[in-house]
Amino acid sequence: MKKILRIGFAVLCCLVVSACGGQNEANKPEPTPAKKPVPATKQEEKPVKTGTDVNPETLQIPVLMYHSINTNVKNNLITPPNEFDAQMKWLVDNGYHAITLSELDLMLITGKNVPDKPVVITFDDGYQDNYTNAYPILKKYGLKANIFVITDKIAKNNHFDEAALKEMSKYGIEMESHTVHHQELNTLSYDDQVKELKESKAVLEHLTGKTVNSICYPVGRYNENTKRAAEATGYKMGFTTEAGKANKNDGMYTLPRVRMVPGMQMKSAIQ
Ligand SMILES: [Zn+2]
Q: Signal peptide position in this chain (predicted)?
């Protein structure tokens, strides 16, 4: 009985719906059955999207190049900690987003999910003061960064040790390769270049458990073999010391950077 009542009610509903639908034409032999309304589904969880999609041809992402962050400024490879702090603060205050090199790789190639004002912070050589001076400042502002490590120098002559490397890696600072011995790659044979690139990558991946994607050429020196060796040993990007902002058309194995020197204002460096 209940079932019959329910069917009757449903038929009545259909008739009311079709009668009220002003678009039904009088000469239609049969009213089209009202479509079942699509039930409201639970909102699907979308992947976190923090940026927008842009044409990668137009991307110009500054990759800042620092070395040592120290009070003892002897040359233009050393930035005093108070200046570094002010520069990081300027980035945050002005809406810049520090991204890692792995993120940069994807953005340069696809142009997808690019945050507003992206910037990459890199340090060359793996100095101890990257850990003692730069790292606390990066943490203070919640900034990501990347360090190009000379693997043979780890824990030697003013370079941070494995414990510091692992701690910073865990925090989100990417450890990337600056070769094993910091030799000028263009002076080495192809096979020796491969050895430098392969061994340093393996050491860092063993220490961090994360993939090493980038190589920074010591003293910015490279040749055609270097680019081939980098690709052959599994790197996605190679960095020079040439000046400029990164775009994929620079060549993914010859990406330029912005050199940070003491006394430099971030505003003029980055814009
Ligand atoms: Zn170096």
A: 1-19
